[in-house]
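Work Package 3 (structural annotation) set out to generate three-dimensional models for the target panel prioritized at the project kickoff. During this period the team completed the workflow that converts sequence records into discrete structure tokens, so that structures can be stored uniformly alongside our sequence database. As a representative example, we reproduce one entry of 447 residues exactly as it appears in the project archive.
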Amino acid sequence: MKKKKIVIIVSSVLVLLAAAAWIYFKVLPSKKETHSQHEGMAGMENMNMDSKGENMTTTEEKVLYTCSMHPQIIRDKPGNCPICGMKLVKKESESREIHDVSLHTLLKPTNGYAISAIPATTLMQSEEPIEINALGYTAYNTNEVGAVSARISGRIEKLYVRFRYQLIKKGQKIMDIYSPELLTAQQNLLFLLKNDPSNSSLISAAKEKLLLLGFPGEQLQQVINTQKPMFTVPVYSNYSGHIHDASNTGMNNAVPEAPAMNEAASLTTQELSLKEGMYLQKGQLVFKVYNPNKVWALLNIYPSDQAFIKAGNKVRIVPEAKPDKDFRSSVYFIEPFFRSGSKTLTARVNVDNSVLQLPIGSQVRATIFSNSLNAEWLPKEAILSLGLEKVVFVKSSNGYRAQKVETGVHYKNLIQITGGITVADSVAANAQFLMDSESFIKVRAKD
């Protein structure tokens, strides 16, 4: 009986221990999981709050502006660089990542290869109207030049023009000349009129001789009426314009050359080399008279543009002296030679200067309208000029390499490409950003 009680007590203790062990291992882990879940949610909330704080901090950051050439210049508003004057750009807080760049690419020389992610462009095939800009100046039109020559030998008694470039009118008296030949011819006429007035043939011949020697008709009638010879004979101009000294003498120089630009625009008013008391020889060129109302605009044309310019092309000219008085004309003639000291051809354009009254030698800007050209074009910004060479940056793998190109006509913001690249090549849309200002760009022939 006693043993039976002991067995019951031991069994009860074991059952209690088993129940306690089950409660301990079943209920406690669930509490730990619940606690860890609460901690995880709290951590997530803290992370969200942190990220929100970071976003708020990023949003509240100021936008800064800097200079591309001088990064030490930083401003909080747009403007210009105080050093070079370039427009300030936005400063990026993070650099753009370029992936898949190999070590071999990074070790290439910077003067021949540049790693960049700037946009690229290709050749554009189109037909564009050609407009060629040219600079020039106004000059006298040699077709409107008159020459005053001495018909007889004699001495200058009175000179009525005193300085170069003096404006004279047609019929204006230039000088009084004493000529023994004219005096003898007058005396012969008076002798015939006095001693043989019925000999009309000899009298007519004597009158005609005086007229052919340049004796004015009015003075001839005066000699006949007064029966006295004139010792000095007036010389009148047959042309209107600016009077110039004759640089050479002799009959072979009767057609004068156009004055040089520095001569035509001289600021010094010089005296005439011809003076009173000097003797003239028969046939000697005395003065040149240039018409200021009919002039030329001499335009400088580069040889590369010669193929697009022909006589008859329309031209719009803007005088620098009167920029609001632009006018239209056409190319009259293209000189087939290079002038001394110049490597440009000269195109002549007729200008009616009667209204404009432009000073001779004044600068002009011209736009010559040629025919349309069907060609391959690139934007002007995609081409970098190295003096005698033109360079573009051709896209290759993860960067750009310098490539020499041949160019043709410039039209507005486009430049014709005649060689160096093909339509299959992609080039940097702005070559200026890939230029190293402290090194020379190394170019090589196209692969």
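The two ends are 113 Å apart (CA to CA).
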